[in-house]
C-alpha cells in the first residue's frame, strides 16, 4: 500500500497528501495497538475481580501494563502476583525489565539476580544484568556480563555489539582496539556488509589515530557504494587532517569526478551542491598549504 502511495511522477501537492496519509495510517496503527492493550487490560481486570487470588492473572495484567509503558502499574501487579505465591523465574525477569525501564536500578538488580539464581546461563537475562550494571556505573561487572552475552548469543544484533563496545570503552576509554576487535568478530558472524558496524569501526579507527586502517576503511565504503562522491570527500577531509595533502588532493579530484558522472538530476540536488562547496573550500585550504 505504501509503495502505491509513493508512486513516481506525482505532483508536489499530491505527494504531500499521500505522505500525510501514510503518516496518518502509521499513527493510527500505533493508537490502535495501545487501544487494544487498554481493552485487554480492562478484560484482565474483570477476570481478576472474579478471581482476586489468582497470581497468574496479576502477572498477565502486569505484562500488559508493561507493554503499555505503565511501569508503576506493572510492578504493582508483579509484586501482587509474587505475594500470592508466583515464584516462576519469568516473573523475576519481567520485574527486572520493568524496574530497568522505570529507572529503579537497584531493585532491578535484585530482581535479575533472583532470576539468575535459577538460570545462571540465560543470555537475555545476562544482557539485562549487564545493562543494569552499566547504568549503575559498574563498568567492570557490566563488561564481564556482556562478554558472556557476546560469546553465547545466537541471534546477536548490531545494536548489541555497539552496546558492548560502549561498555568496553567505559572500562577503558582508550581501548579502541578491544572495541574494534569485537566489531570484527561480529562482522564475521553477521556478514561484512553490516554497515552500522562498519561505520562505528570507522569512528573508532579515526579516534585511535590509526591512519592506514582508517584509509582502508574509507576505501571499503567507496567500493561498496554506488554514490561515491561523499565518501571520496570524507576521505579527503581525513587525509587533510592527518597532513597527507597530496593524497587529499587526489581524493578531492575523485570526488569531483564522481559528481560529474552523476545524472544531471542528481547534480542539481541541494546536497550535491553543498558538497561541491565543501570540496571547493577544502581545495582552497590545500592550495594555501602549497603556497
UniProtKB/TrEMBL annotation:
**Where does the signal peptide begin and end?**
none
Q: Which domain of life is it from?
A: Bacteria
What keywords does the record list, in alphabetical order? TPR repeat
Spell out the residue ranges that the record assigns to TPR repeats: 55-88
Q: Which SUPFAM superfamilies match?
A: TPR-like (SSF48452)
Query: What name does UniProt use for this protein?
Result: Tetratricopeptide repeat protein
- List the source organism: Mariniflexile soesokkakense
